[in-house]
Amino acid sequence: MGFDTYCWAHHYLIHPYQHFQPLPVLARLAAEPGNMKLATSVLLLPLLNPVDVAEQVATLDHISEGRLILGLGLGYRPEECEAFGTKMSQRGARHTEALALMKRLWTEDEVTHHGNYFHVTNARPTAKPYQKPYPKIWLAGMSDPAIKRIGRDGDTLFIGPVQPKDMIRHQIELHHATLEENGHPIPEDMVIVREFFCAGSRDEAMEKARRGFERKYKEYEDHGFQGEDPELIRKITGDLETLMDETFIVGSPQECIEQVAQYRDMGFTEVCIRLFYPETPQKDVLEHIDLVGKEVLPVLRLL
């Protein structure tokens, strides 16, 4: 249908939803979508061992012949941290250390690393990625401290689904300022994910999407978003109508095109759109994908 990339998210113990794991799913899908890229959106690195992730990612990069994008994030659920023996307060530090070690395992012939969380001595990695030096990395951030961490390391910014436009503009400026302070160039990519629903008109789109939106964001509220920015939590768990107006892309094909174009004008090179929601029948999902592929994507490519 003309999409560029297929993204798969990552959670554990995410009741009441079914959620299969991203790396085996993307490995299975690698044979199906032609030249489409495959992305983890996002893999929760603080929960995982970086040696295992580095080798799994290198493996999947070969399976997909270099079409893998590695999206990484911290996660927000205490249940997941507890299950993996980590602490919410350690997410940022574990993420930074793990990613630095993974990059060394992908690019160096011998690695010794003794950090706060991970240790290898005279390791000689053999699972090197297909892409050189390694796949593109998108780092997700919702709060200002996360944006600063991404900028300090010089990585590509991946904005989440719920920040409104005024917050996005602030965070882009913060990311660029932090990049400059640390001597990094602005990365060639900038990525955002948005909730999305397209239909014949905005009223029709809202009618079809509302139940899925309400169900999904009720679960977000119940999960709590611990450790995130209080103002952002208020927006996420507050008035759904306001959230839909400020952050969701919803409407007719032309309205959706205009809304996506706004993010292009803000500097985003990739806009990831969510195309289905809880309890959406498969028939409706396929019809939605068909509509977007035929009436939205062709116009966007001409803008």
Concise structural overview:
The chain is of the alpha/beta class and 303 residues long. The chain has 12 helices and 10 strands. The strands form 2 sheets. Strands 1, 2, 3, 6, 7, 8, 9 and 10 form an 8-stranded parallel β-sheet that branches. Strands 4-5 form a two-stranded antiparallel sheet.
How would you describe what is shown here?
With 303 residues, the chain is α/β, with parallel strands linked by helices. It has a single domain, classed as TIM Barrel (Alpha-Beta Barrel). The protein contains twelve helices and ten strands. It has helices at residues 22-29, 50-63, 78-83, 91-107, 144-152, 165-181, 202-223, 230-237, 240-247, 253-265, 282-295, 297-302, and strands at 5-8, 37-44, 68-73, 111-114, 119-123, 136-141, 156-159, 191-198, 249-251, 270-274. β7 (156-159), α6 and β8 (191-198) form a beta-alpha-beta unit. The longest helix is centred in the C-terminal third of the chain and has 22 residues, at 202-223. The chain is globular, with a radius of gyration of 19 Å.
User: What's the shape?
Assistant: globular
**Which percent range fits the helix content?**
40-55%
> Strand-and-helix sequence, N→C?
EHEHEHHEEEHEHEHHHEHEHH
Q: Quick one: CATH class?
A: Alpha Beta
Using only C-alpha atoms, the radius of gyration works out to 19 Å
Q: What structural class is derived from the secondary structure elements?
A: alpha/beta
Report the CATH superfamily. Luciferase-like domain
- How confident is the prediction overall: mean pLDDT? 92
Specify the CATH architecture: Alpha-Beta Barrel
